[in-house]
Amino acid sequence: MRRTAGEVREALAPALGADRLRLGVPLAPYTTFRIGGPADVLYDATSADELATAVTSAHAAGIPCFVLGLGANILVGDRGVRGLVVRNLARGIQDLAGGRVRAESGVVIADLIRHAVARGRSGLEHYVGIPSTVGGAVWQNLHFLSPAPARERTMFIAEVVESVELVPPGGGRMTVPREAMGFGYDDSRLHTSGETALAVTFALPEGDPAVMHRVMQENLSWRGARHPWLEVHPSAGSVFKKIEGVGAGRLIDQCGLKGHRIGGAQISHIHANILVNLGGATAADVRALIALAQHQVRERFGQSLEPEIGFIGEFAEESAQLDAKS
Fold first, then answer.
1. Which of 2, 55, 80, 135 is in Cβ range 3.0-4.6 Å of 105 for a Cys bridge?
2. Hey, which residues does 217 pair with through a beta bridge?
3. Pairing between β-strand 154-156 and β-strand 143-145 as defined by DSSP bridges
4. What is the pLDDT of residue 320?
5. Is 158 helix (H, G, I), strand (E, B) or coil?
6. Looking at domain 5-88, which CATH architecture does it have?
7. Cα–Cα distance measured from residue 267 to residue 13, given in angstroms and rounded to the nearest whole number
């Protein structure tokens, strides 16, 4: 039987403190899409230790738990999220010997890039402009087509990861090397293991700050010309996974869907694989656009578009038939 928000708070209060467990907090402001209903209970974890305690306590009490970073690459349901939502605000950064940097999983990638570049450490500057925390970056093996001008290969953040500190669902801690993380394209062991990343140690070689700043400027310019600005048109980034040989955005564009709108959600005029919130969009609006794009691409090209964004929580509509379940 599902517990009420009050029962969830009561069960977790001894470990997390009743005064820090907030009930019915809307999650839209904490996502890049600016969409999403309330969390039953919201807790702000301000350190890796607090994050470990929160997820371990929730698991021990049999309470569903979702860890929220910057809220990119997800769509939160209009009915919100049951159980405990932990905002990962663990943002400690520590310089180690040999050009290594330990960053807690709530560190914003933009802040970590600035930290590294200021110390002449290279390898992270390629991911400038991508909204993510360190935890989100290792979850999806953050990647970008870089460096300019050739942009001949996709660079992955796994290339500079040395190790990851994890907490398993049952508690305890362990540190695993990069090779054990199961990194792939948009993938890592975290998708299936039930573990939570607490911190990541990066091995960053020496670099020329002038070169790193050039790479950052080129990448920001390149992204800005191809992606809608989050400050103006909130989004979750690319919605569908890449299809071998052709991008999902190109197929959607060829169906004439750029600019198509349902409610407050729209398929971007700039990039057809990005859906934007024009103001007041609901998760139902977004899911309807996803279903429309899937249907038209399947009818015209015989291709199945599979969402790469995560569907979190409960949705007010279940009528849209998505090719990939949340």
1. 135
2. none
3. antiparallel
4. 42
5. helix
6. 2-Layer Sandwich (3.30)
7. 43
Residues of the chain with CATH 3.30.465.10: 93-224
Rounded distance between C-alpha atoms, residue 19 and residue 256, angstroms: 51
CATH match of 235-312 with 3.90.78.10:
yes
Taking CA atoms, 311 is separated from 94, 121, 161, 167, 190, in Å, by 33, 36, 27, 23, 16
pTM for the model stands at: 0.93
DSSP letter at 133 equals B
Q: Within 13 Å and on the Cβ side, how many CA atoms surround 40? A: 20
Selection from 43, 49, 38 nearest residue 13 by Cα: 43
**DSSP result, 249-302:** HHHHHHTT-TT-EETTEEE-SS-TTEEEE-SS--HHHHHHHHHHHHHHHHHHH-
Per-residue pLDDT tens over the stretch 66-123: 999 999 999 999 999 999 999 999 999 999 999 999 999 999 999 999 999 999 999 9
How many Å apart are CA 237 and CA 229, to the nearest integer? 10
- Among 61, 69, 70, which Cα is nearest to 16's? 61
| pLDDT digits 0-9 by tens, 218-256 | 999 999 998 999 999 999 999 999 887 788 999 999 999
Q: Which two tokens stand for residue 47?
A: 């350190």
Residues 6+ apart with CB under 8 A from 176: 163, 164, 166
Sign of the torsion angle spanned by Cα atoms 244, 230, 23, 197:
positive
The owner of tokens 């996709």 is: 154
Residue with tokens 């350190």: 47
- Residue holding tokens 């002038």? 210
Q: In which residue are the tokens 């305890």 written?
A: 172
